[in-house]
Amino acid sequence: MKMKHNKKRNTAFIFEALIRELTKAIVARDNKKKSLIIKLVRENFKGSSALAKDLELYKAVLDTNDLDRQTAEKLIYEARLRKKIINEKQLFQEQTEVIDKINKLVSPNVFSNFIPNYRDVATVYQIFDFRTKTKQRVLMEKQIIEKMTSPKKKGPSAVKPIDNLTYKTFVSKFNEKYGSELLSEQKRLLSHYVESFADNGLELKVYLNEEISRLKDKLNQAMKLSEIREDSEMLEGTRKVVEILDGCSKRLIDSAMVQEILKIQNLVKEMEG
């Protein structure tokens, strides 16, 4: 008999559902809800918590691509071993507490949020569950391994931290190509990107949601200007940039995406000038 997936006991689902709700709050400019959700994530997914340790294992499997099969199998094996080390009672208690806070302080509808990779999140939950029958688990592992060994798609990837040397090189190359000095908003973006490993990319996601919304507003305003509206080439180019920003919500965050936003920030500044 196939086990039923309990999404409220799936740490990765809880986290992603909260991030979706956070995005909705930012778009709606609901600062009270935004602050509340950020506080919830920070307090409940902090480094020493069982939830944070559990989430890290989900991400290790879900955010991995382009591995050889042997490495993918070893990664899942190690993740399952580490899962057993997490205190099950502590994890259950922390999940219960965050579920209760979400229901009371945010909304029970959080758990109805659409998660793009829901099927994979549910599959990993069952791979980690010791009650899953061996045959079923092996078949599920095969399914996940196929994704882990598939080539990395252009654009989407996991949020990855970069060290100081990489950061300086990144900034230096950007300055060489796009100007001698970064804009204040570009510095903030790079700063959030560098620090994204500390909070599962939460601050980076918050900043990007707000910044993308700001950039879209500026570009939509620019399309109303006569010099752009009456120039079909400039108008079409501006529309394409807005489409790129619209597509960011469906992507995970990597250096390529950050560089795209940096370029668009530069473009918007030039338009304002």
Produce a short descriptive summary.
This protein has 273 residues and is mostly helical. 70% of the residues lie in helices and 0% in strands. The protein is built from 13 helices and no strands.
Commentary on this structure:
- This protein is mainly α.
- It has 2 domains: 7-148, no CATH class; 164-272, no CATH class.
- It contains 13 helices and no strands.
- It has helices spanning 11-27, 31-44, 50-62, 69-85, 88-106, 118-128, 134-148, 164-178, 184-194, 202-222, 226-229, 232-247, 255-272.
- The radius of gyration is 21 Å and the shape is globular.
- Residues 154-163 have low confidence and may be disordered.
